[in-house]
Amino acid sequence: MEKKQITNWFIRFIKGVFIALGFILPGVSGGVLAAILGLYERMLNFMAHIRQNFKRDFAFFLPVGLGGIAGIILLSRPLEFLLVSYKAMVLWGFAGAIVGTLPALFKESAKKGRSYRDWIMFGVTAVVGGLFLYNMTAIFGQMPINFFSWLLAGALIALGVIVPGLSPSNFLLYLGLFDPMLAGFKRADMGVFIPIAVGAIVTLVSFSKVMSYLLQHFYSLVYHFILAIVVVSTILIVIPPVADYSGFNMTSVIVSAILFALGIVLGYWMSGLEKKYK
């Protein structure tokens, strides 16, 4: 391998490390980071036409994928520690990051007009979706941690790339998969990595065309559905049982408020980057 090829391979590896931030940090978009780093359009084309130039594109994205795995492992360690030691406060920071993206998402939802049907979709989704998510554990029981739950986690992470404005970490947190996922990433556990990768790849390949069709024919309805789910899931991660406020004091409240505010700034900044680069 020539020196230039080695350099390019390493550069794509480093880009993968940075893109990994968007896959597990709420309010940070992996798709936007990929766009900033000049990989988004080629990534989408690869997903939409997986058999076309497969060998060439696979070789191109291999170091990106390896960098993403390395970035996830590196980031998982400090993030797992923070969630174990200061979970409620960290969740308020996550919630702030997602709230910071809402103005851009709200504006995007009206890009092709807004009608009473869209508000009905928002209201019904918020009420029905919120009640369902809140009572999901009571209805179905605790989400088991197994191969199929990791497939679901991979699918949700992939949806965060191809569905505009959706933060999969909200659902992972609420389903109780986020913490064990981080623990598995930290251990570089292939029993976690492999099914998540399979779930993500299958979803990226199969759902990208479906999403394209829905946005083409039902743009406003789809965006108002997404907007309602984002709002509801953000509320749910900062109330019990996901957030545990035992031992909370005034210092904890102040720190949570600061993290929430910083999160809003981060989310708003990321939305600006999305508008500029995506």
TrEMBL record:
InterPro entries: VCA0040-like. The chain crosses the membrane at residues 17-37, 58-76, 88-106, 118-141, 147-178, 190-215, 221-239, 251-270. This is DUF368 domain-containing protein. Keywords: Membrane, Transmembrane, Transmembrane helix. Signal peptide: none annotated. Pfam families: VCA0040-like. Coiled coil: none annotated.
